[in-house]
Design a protein that fits this description.
With about 140 residues, the protein is mainly alpha-helical. It contains six helices and no strands. About 85% of the residues lie in helices and about 0% in strands.
Length: about 140
């Protein structure tokens, strides 16, 4: 159930992030001279494609590395708790950086989409493998 819910609801988050980043980018784009806009748009598209591919590769490499030593239930809980504590500070920091990073936000959003697709299209998560091994052992 949890995996199905994640697969159905999680694509909404990157879609919203892409919408926000493109809105910020459009505000930045309006202040550019008209001759530069076309070149900048092509550079943005290339950077977004590279970002999406890079995000997918980063996620798949991390997944492959984590499958070599899957965490047991205790280690998975500890890692999740540490991640939740850290994410609050990163969210606050990210709000300030969004305004500064408007020109590169589409590429960053594409990286996040690639990372999310890489995370959601795996057969099993390392935590699932670790939990299965803990139950068998």
């Amino acid at each position: 159930m949890r995996r199905t819910g994640t697969g159905v609801l999680w694509p909404v988050v990157p879609a919203f992030f892409c919408f926000v980043s493109l809105s910020l980018y459009d505000g930045f784009r309006e202040v550019l001279p008209s001759g530069v806009r076309g070149v900048w748009d092509v550079a943005r598209i290339v950077a977004a494609c590279a970002g999406a591919l890079w995000g997918w590769v980063v996620q798949r490499r991390a997944h492959r590395r984590d499958l070599l030593d899957p965490p047991g239930p205790g280690r998975a809980r500890a890692a999740r708790r540490a991640s939740v504590r850290r994410s609050t500070g990163l969210a606050a920091l990210g709000r300030g950086l969004v305004v500064i990073a408007a020109p590169v936000m589409p590429a960053f959003a594409a990286f996040c989409v690639g990372w999310s697709v890489g995370a959601l299209t795996v057969r099993e998560y390392p935590t699932e493998v670790g939990a299965r091994r803990a139950m068998q052992g």
